[in-house]
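Supplementary material to the annual report.
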Amino acid sequence: METAPKPGRDVPPKKDRLQTKKKKPRERRNLEPQRSVSGAQDPFPGPAPVPVEEAGKFRRIDKSKKLPHSKSKTRSRLEVAEAEEEEISIKAARSELLLAEEPGFLEGENGENTAKIRQADIVEAVDIASAAKHFDLNLRQFGPYRLNYSPTGRHLAFGGRRGHVATLDWVTKRLMCEINVMEAVRDIRFLHSEALLAVAQNRWLHIYDNQGIELHCIRRCDRVTRLEFLPFHFLLATASETGFLTYLDVSVGKIVAALNARAGRLDIMTKNPYNAVIHLGHSNGTVSLWSPAMKEPLAKILCHRGGVRAVAVDSTGTYMATSGLDHQLKIFDLRGTFQPLSARTLPQGAGHLAFSQRGLLAAGMGDVVNIWAGQGKASPPSLEQPYLTHRLSGHVHGLHFCPFEDVLGVGHNGGITSMLVPGAAEPNFDGLESNPYRSQKQRQEWEVKALLEKVPAELICLDPRALAEVDVISLEQEKKERIERLGYDPEAKAPFQPKPKQKGRSSTASLVKRKRKVMDEEHRDKVRQSLEQQPQKQEKKAKPLRARPSALDRFVC
Amino acid sequence: MKVKMLSRNPDNYVRETKLDLQRVPRNYDPTLHPFEVPREYVRALNATKLERVFAKPFLASLDGHRDGVNCLAKHPKSLATVLSGACDGEVRIWNLTKRKCNRTIQAHEGFVRGICTRFCGTSFFTVGDDKTVKQWKMDGPSYGEEEEPLHTILGKTVYTGIDHHWKEAVFVTCGQQVDIWDEQRTSPVCSMTWGFDSISSVKFNPIETFLLGSCASDRNIVLYDMRQSTPLKKVILEMRTNTICWNPMEAFIFTAANEDYNLYTFDMRALDTPVMVHMDHVSAVLDVDYSPTGKEFVSASFDKSIRIFPVDKSRSREVYHTKRMQHVICVKWTSDSKYIMCGSDEMNIRLWKANASEKLGVLTSREKAAKDYNQKLKEKFQHHPHIKRIARHRHLPKSIYSQIQEQRIMKEARRRKEVNRLKHSKPGSVSIVSEKKKHIVAVVK
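Predicted assembly:
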């Protein structure tokens, strides 16, 4: 039977009022400059400077959104949460100091154009380990190649049009398997790890082990032209010649959705890594966005005058690059307005596009690969001057940036080329997400955890943070239902009751006077509000009274 | 030209020997961790499901009494000791770790109405139907001694409850009136009464130790001040309160277990409205006890279940029941806030876990981290419909379930009639009374 602990010296005595305790965000106390025994003073007094720009990327609360009117308890909790997020974002930004690696770069001296620098020059100037990352595989016999890197970037799989399929660890050049599937290979993709491989063959979709053993033949996915794997949902999306977009859940082996895109043959498909939405390019110049939860596309964007030939989305889901038969290469803004940000006319249309982790855009036009770079990680690539170019020994058929290495893999008529692109990749990976140096045990543990937190396909939508938002519609619905049920509104302001006062100030006349004062004040507020709303209404009414729009209106500045 | 390629030294990323830990570099950039919210949602769903899978709260049943268990008392210094008094006058002292009875005393002829321990833990007091108050040693008779009370006080009326002061050598009994006794004297120091009916229970406030509260048969709860030897104020409810319990963390909050199936948490300073009305039982609530954290309390009811309520919510978070457990008369929450003991009509004392899916014993640091993370996830996503449905799901015995449906229909009918009355009468003539104030009849100072 212990007594309650006695308050310490600095704690003020408890107030004898019925107050709800407000949790205020902790204030930083400014200490006086510390003096050491030797008398030396700290040359940088005060707390470490706050990196404001980097702290911005760790903030997740969207402060511009207005929440419906809520109780004071909810509002105070929100304030506490926002203050905590501020503190945490600063601490996370400070912890960036611990990141070991720096991104690569390529700069020309004396105004040199980086696009004129050849791969051979870069290979000479760079250290041995990086030089070894540049290689050419001459495989002319089995047709143009398409390639894919595994999610950790350690393994490479490529498939030739005449049936040659191989997987290897490209860093150590150790071949894992090499087979000929005796059928045309249209596309090839690694599934969630380097252990499984999906090959879109002429007739059906086949799944292979990384030793070359055929595991599954999925006959429901026939005449597949393109494959995309959504890693966090364990979904394999296939676009077929028959016009169907099929989602296959590879963890349970079920087809989640088979959507009829109603646009004829589906040739161009890419995924948006930020929200797992599939972008399909069509021959009428539109790009449509699909989610397995809906039968209709989420959005349709008109991009080009002719057909769309290639689509690519960057890793943050902010920019989409498209190229079309009208020889244009355009970059669209995906978050917010779906408007084009920049455009460029190419001498030859780009048939393949790829974004790197740090926002570099690679385009394959014929047998030339052009790479454009932006200012920093967050800005779109500027299409004025290419950053790097390279001519290959055959026409480009596939482009893929290696995930955590400064390397671009190109599949072409003559085989596979691995190009060096300094500054393409994210230098610091997270060991718990995709770790190129993971051991067998770590891979197994990671796979189990990834399966346990597999996101259901119904949750795919344009805003992946939708689950964390307040469901305003349901909230207001609930309020209405509660008012109906109770017969009155429990949160409506109670009519003003003047408190009884001492010394004769509580006579009937003075009570009535006080009530009247409060009522008049509220009336005045209401009138003011309605006056503010009136000119807005008048503006809306004024619009239809203008003259009919004529064709000459566009010449009015 | 200036060129630098990203080139990692594998020595910095791969461990040197098999005996080392694996190196896991971290980067907390949100662009490397897409789908944060859906993945955490799935983790929260898994955590909620696993919580239900591992919810096995029943630990042990202490068998031995030969009549229904009427009252329980905790030992103030030893977590493993509990005292129980039965309806045949027997008092037993149990060891919870060995789940055995240490000592049996035939204390009274008739019911043992109340039992309480002294704050130092060396002795305890019992009152019974034979109008006596007896003080016993906690240790037990040594070799050659007989089992005898240290001290016996004979009274004139039946005493129905007893409680000991938290700091001083004073105890209080209640029966016809509230008597405050000094341990050295054989007659009460003072007697207080307000009202005409018998008083069923009395409790000392653990923080403001001079305050006590009592429940009487004329539906009121009276608060007394020991220093001035007067009653302070009383609140009259619609039905009789069985017991009250003071919050061990908030000096002025107490919870009353009422016959009208509800529990009322009052703030002593403003008795006209209860802070919260806790509604979930389907029969009279017989006993209530607070957790040492002061955030939750457990209530025992005549419907054969015990429920755990948070202090600030009106619905219970947990319900424990067994086919073998009949009407639960008394309940206690152990002083380490981990276990709940309840004594029931069928002569058994049952031991339960306070958190049904908690793993007992010492946890490794990884287990603790995983447990904390899962707790926070469940809290963050608790309002999402699928998760709420799973977290709320409890199996109830058919009797309680059908009673709940019936009472819901009755409440709905009453509410509909009130709303109609409100709608069809002159505005202002029918006043809207909040649910909390409805159950209070009057407050008298």
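The mean pLDDT of chain B is 94.
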